[in-house]
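Write out the 3D structure for:
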Amino acid sequence: MFKRVIPVLVLLILSSSQVGASVQAPVSPEEGCPEGYFSAVTLAPIEAGETSSKIVAQECRPIEETVMTEMLQPLSPEEWEAARPAEEWESQGEVVNGIVHGPSDEAEYHCVVWLEPIQPGEQFSKASEPTCAKGPIETINGVSLESNFLIAKFYNRTNYASLLIEYYGAQACSSQVSYGVGDLPDDLDNKFASGQAFSSCDHIDVYDFNYHTGASYSCGANCPSFYALNDEVSSWRASD
């Protein structure tokens, strides 16, 4: 599984009492670095009574050390609403998206997987093999969906476009019941760009690497985008 590595070009020296840092002076390759090199700057934390950091060290490094640079944009009010703090997500899984059970009635081609709740001492759900079809899916490997609950949907594009998969379980989420997949199969790995949780599952957590490791993103029951983790999700969890 290939994952991008994003280097940090400005290094910070952190302490428990100092948490801020800012660049004291603009730095560019033109300021002393030869062609093919970039300036790497180490900043000290902002001292009490100061408004900017001191430059502790500065050196030229080969551009080849830079794998990728990404510009991060501030969240819009709509994006912040989708990424609200966890305490504001309570009851979204039932109030926003409802308690949903019974067969999948999606018209487009998609897959459905049945999950067991995560058992005590375990971190992931046991999962059935997927059942895929265009149109309604009533059973998964002989298990009827009539009395099972819809847990989550994940989509290939942002804003819930291009449904990939639905997950069902025997119980709705609760303080004792949650669901999660630790290792997405190859045909779903690095494909998720948005998701929804249902049936009292109020939170979705997605992870860059399998087994709930690496960078992560948390949201409520409605996640129109996973932002930096779009097309990077390798495992996920849904909980109350």
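The chain has a mean pLDDT of 79.
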